[in-house]
Amino acid sequence: MKLTRLLTNKLTSFWLLSLAAVAFIFLLVALVSFTQLTYKFQQQKVTELESMLIHHYEHENNKALSTWLPSILTAYNTVSLTLRAEGQILYEYGPEKLGAGMITYERQLLKADNLILVITLPQPFKMYSLSWYEFSILVIGLLSISVFVFFGHRWLSIQLQGIEDLAVRSKLILENEYDKALAERGDGRPRMINRALTHLLLELDDAEKHRARFDQFIRSNTFLDPETGIGNRLFLKNRLDALSNDKGMMAPGVLFLLEMEDMDLLQQELGDDSIDEMLHQTISDINQILDSQANSIFSRRSFNQFAIVVPQISLKDVEKLAAKLLKVCLSQNVPETENSEDFFHIGAAYFKVGDSKEQLLDESERALRAAQFQGTSGWFMYDKGAVDEELAKGSVRWRSFLEYALVNRRLVVFSQPVVDSDMETHHLEISSRIRDNKNNLVRATLYIPMAIKCGLTPQFERQVIETVLFDLLCDPKGRTTKFSINLSLDTLMSRAFIRWLKTTLLEYRHLTPWLIFEINEDIVVHHKEQLKSRLDMIKKMGASLCVDRVGQQVVSTQYIKECHFDLIKLDRSIVTQIHLRQENQLFVRSLIGGLYRTDVQVFAEGIESFEEWQTLKILGVSAGQGNLFSEPVEEI
């Protein structure tokens, strides 16, 4: 930050002006005093000459004036002299015509004889000139004053540097740059004030961290099971609502119900410690398996029943996943009882697009009961025929189709507006679909999981960015609004993509401010250290950063400030029927309160009804996105 040094400049200017004024007054007084002294000295000489002439006239009349008077006049530097008595000139000295710059004195010496003296002398100060010795003394004095002024200015600047450091920190605080103000400790003086600022900034930083922990505590007590730390029944309901709309489920997937038979009886017989240890170990192992499944949901429905939802998964992968879950459960150290071989049961219900949420829960309950009727620990799949035919394509066929779409640029871009409280478009969020050979559009929820599986996500997202830069932003009409583009984990972790993105943003830096890059909250939270440098690069290039699906998981929101996000978007699970859910409203209030005094804007996505939008505006949400305003529209 460029230092203004306002205080130092003002004080040093005042000091120099005061010094110059003192010097000027001193020189003026010296000049006036010198002039007055020379005039006084000249007048004393004239008075002495008058005394000598009166004495000579009274004793010797006008005789022999020429014998002694010329030498005295020469010593006095007299230009001319005239001595008259009774109108007659007694003595005259000097030329008839006088030059300029002379002083003439006319004095009446004796009234009785009317003796008058007229004497002309040069200006007194013209008779004095500086010698080399005097001139050298004057030069040395001026140089000494200059050196004194230089070192005085330097000393004053050093003394005021501490106040300038305090001014810099104060300016950063007023601009809400608390992290920079804390790092800019410097050598502020008075030191007590500097230490006080540092202490308050540390307290503020700690308070913000406490606020983030408090927000997480509120969310944990609302959406998490206190014993296991995974989602509770309300969390499961919100996430299922987010995966569905009034037409049913929006993406294919599977719902597992895991139940531990007679766990309450075992707890009474063996105690809480042994059961808790086995339960936490089981949950930990299941979480490790689910880490490889994007957007999976793990929650506790009741004391001994757990639910696992995995969206965008094929039937073949469902069978493999069910086998892994059962293997993990059977590997647990279950206390030896009569029914220890019949302890774990898993019911699976596969759903496709359009299936109702209530039907899904009913089918998973039936599958769980069927697994329990088998008489031993195992799993059962309900209605294996309910398979989305498009998801049943083999990986090789999908790779060929996706590569063909990339080469022939079959990607179709859609945009959905994000509107503010005045119904003005803040930006357009970009989504994509693929047009197949039959001119049908393959939705993103279908092709993106396969693109991730085939490692082609960076290529598709690169084409989306190119379309926005070269087709939408180059259009003069498109420059009136910003465009947001979603980036996945595979894309952000690709070095080749990051190099291309950096080069492209540099080349089109005049268009970069019109771009917003969105990243999933789950990605940011779990890969913050690896992604921070990449996100900082995007930010420095001039683009904005947005984190979406906020609230999907129960995590601390401290990452929003650490990664310097400009926008956040509430997840659909928080927004759905928020006017009827006090716990979701509490979460939004807590989130917005934690972002107070920051420039982060809070948006919401998945708004379907007017009541939801009104409630969000009352809570402080700045803008919204959803089918209430507009469905995605094809751009090209």
TrEMBL record:
Keyword Transferase on this protein?
no
Highest taxon above the source species: Bacteria
Q: Any idea which UniProt keywords this protein has? A: Membrane, Transmembrane, Transmembrane helix
Q: Which InterPro entries match?
A: Cyclic-di-GMP_PDE-like, EAL_dom, EAL_sf, GGDEF_dom, Nucleotide_cyclase, Rev_trsase/Diguanyl_cyclase
Is Membrane among this UniProt entry's keywords?
A: yes
Q: Which PANTHER family match?
A: CYCLIC DI-GMP PHOSPHODIESTERASE PDEF (PTHR33121), RNASE E SPECIFICITY FACTOR CSRD (PTHR33121:SF32)
What this protein is called in its record is RNase E specificity factor CsrD
Look up and give the organism this protein is from. Answer: Shewanella psychropiezotolerans
Gene (name only) = csrD
